[in-house]
Design brief:
Radius of gyration: 56 Å
Order of helices and strands: HHHHH
Distance between the termini: 136 Å
Structural class: mainly alpha
Length: 241
């Protein structure tokens, strides 16, 4: 039974198989082997392969250098084109500004000429109305000019009083804080005066129109005619009713 076992048969076949024993190649009888020639051929083959690798390396490097040079040339060309485009754009912008300035000057000259012609026509018409009227207009112009000069001088005087030099270069941090606080207070005062002035102008503008209505409302409420003074509480209530 053991002989019929498949494992036993496989084991026996493995043991009985002869092993391979490598042996040196047989040199044919009557021939002499030149090992130096074989070595030289092998070295020549290695040298040829090495030379081929070196040539391929230098060829690849030469190609990369050519590509780099071409890239630099493209970059330089693009930079030159961009500079040329910017120069052209700047020239066009300069020409456009010049044309706008020339057009503005022409318009101003035309307006000045038209105004001068209108003034000349007015003076011609007025001069034909008589010398007395002309002298009257001359006096009126002088008076108006003197008034404008007076208002201008008054404005310059007020601005000169308010526009004082800061002189803050020599101040330290605390002094600068005090100076800033002082300037803020001045600004606050100016804004308050501006608001009061605007409100006063509004009252002066609407008071003549409201005075008749206030008088009628006051009489209707039995308080008498409105005399231009401020309404009391009952008059205000009656007016708004």
């Amino acid at each position: 039974h053991a002989l019929l076992n498949p494992c036993f048969i496989l084991f026996r076949s493995t043991e009985e198989k002869p092993k391979y024993k490598p042996s040196a190649p047989k040199i044919p009888d009557g021939e002499k082997v030149d090992f130096d020639d074989i070595q030289k051929k092998r070295q020549n083959k290695d040298l040829i392969e090495l030379q081929a690798l070196i040539d391929a390396h230098f060829e690849h490097r030469k190609k990369e250098e050519e590509e780099l040079i071409a890239l630099k040339e493209r970059i330089e060309k693009r930079r030159s084109e961009r500079a040329e485009q910017q120069r052209i754009r700047a020239d066009k912008e300069k020409e456009r500004q010049t044309r706008r300035e020339e057009e503005r000057l022409r318009r101003e000259e035309a307006d000045a000429k038209r105004k001068a012609d209108d003034e000349a026509k007015k003076k011609s018409v007025l001069s034909g109305m008589g010398s007395n009227y002309s002298s009257y207009l001359q006096k009126a112009d002088q008076k108006r000019g003197g008034k404008k000069q007076t208002e201008r001088e008054k404005k310059k005087k007020i601005l000169a009083e308010r526009r004082k030099p800061l002189n803050i270069d020599h101040l330290n941090e605390d002094k600068l804080r005090e100076k800033a606080k002082e300037l803020w207070e001045v600004m606050h005062t100016l804004e308050s005066e501006k608001f009061d002035h605007i409100e006063k102008l509004k009252r002066q503008k609407y008071e003549p129109a409201l005075r008749p209505r206030c008088s009628v409302s006051a009489r209707r409420c039995g308080r008498g005619a409105f005399s231009g003074k401020e309404l009391n509480t009952s008059q205000k209530k009656c007016f708004w009713e």
